[in-house]
Specification:
The complex is a heterodimer of chains A (about 170) and B (about 200).
Chain A lengths: L4 E8 L8 E4 L7 E8 L7 E2 L1 E5 L8 E9 L2 E5 L10 E2 L8 E8 L7 E8 L9 E9 L8 E5 L9 E7 L4
Antiparallel strand pairs in A: 1-13, 2-12, 3-9, 3-13, 4-8, 5-12, 6-7, 6-11, 9-10, 10-11
Chain B lengths: L3 E4 L18 E8 L7 E3 L8 E10 L6 E8 L8 E8 L4 E5 L8 E9 L6 E8 L8 E15 L2 E12 L8 E5 L9 E7 L5
Parallel strand pairs in B: 4-8
Antiparallel strand pairs in B: 2-13, 3-12, 4-9, 4-13, 5-8, 5-12, 6-7, 6-11, 9-10, 10-11
The chains are: A mainly beta (about 170), B mainly beta (about 200).
Chain lengths: ~170, ~200
Amino acid sequence: MAYTYSKIATYTVGSGGIKSVDFLNIPQTYTDLKLVLSSRSNYGNNFGNPRITINGNTSTSSFSRRSIYAENGAAGSEVGSETRIIGVIPDNATANTFGSLELYIPNYTGSTYKSYFSDSVTENNSSSIYGMWILSGLWKDSSPITSISVAPIDGNFVQYTSAHLYGIKAEL
Amino acid sequence: MGSISLKYKSKSGNLTAPGDVDPGAMIPIASTTLTTSAASISITGIPTNYEHLQVRMSLLTQRATYGTDGYYLGINGTFGTNIYSWHELRGDGGSISSGASGSSLVNSIAAPFQCGTTATNYPATIVMDILDYSNTSKYKTLRILGGVDLNGTVAGYGGALNLISGAYHSTNAVTSFELYPQLASFAAGCKVSVYGIKRAGA
């Protein structure tokens, strides 16, 4: 039986926090990958950015991205120099409030460059300090994706952050 | 502080016993389709044994003349209680804009432009995710992506899409939610479907 939407791995951050969440040895038996992240960092800002590493590759020249966003009361669009960013997460926002991010990578085992899409939000009761992103990205490598790591650019993920990796399989 | 690695967990794709059935990670919980107009739509009795919720909606109201409307959302019967905040990123094909509920908590989550209307019968399409919806250590953040295109303009407006973030400032598990249209009743044909998303190992 082929499972259209399958659970691959889940990680929940314990007390003390953690710098990154790593998904290794990703099975090559699905068609697409979906990562969902309910997260918060301990950095002393209002919101920050999570950054992706694929197959251990941290080179900014191996990635590109563009996004539309709402931040701090303004909306815009950008092509950023920090190419590994995949969205926004809350830092020192309203207590107990975690961001929500979904990253979708179709055809992750294919032999072409890997495009991905994400949408992410932070949340707090402020009219001037918040972040929301819709992002398209590209990993400029033809290798199949076998590992994904996500970490906040600044600070660590705090307790109760959760990260989940799912495989989406096309029925052939 | 170092990172922790985790190996993937997967179930075998080979089912060998009649009772050994894994339906996958996305499980339908509830679905409702309006057969007549309604002042609200409620989903109740949501089980708390999943990791996340995903809600998929097709909505339109009976607003006349214009092709778009919106809705308000409340959770666990607290619609009307100042326990929410929300923010919006919107595009309509001509410009992008942002909005917010303000610096004080408000009585619901607002989702403007996420309904079509019977003026055109083009429904809006919405996907809403609530991660960790039953976690009693976290407030609940909603990520709502949706919109409607009107195939040209209707009364001068062609539709919009928006990403809405909402927060239910409570650690209570989500067991129900309610939708209220902004300007006119929900029309027959509105559909709301709720799915439970499992975690690995569940």
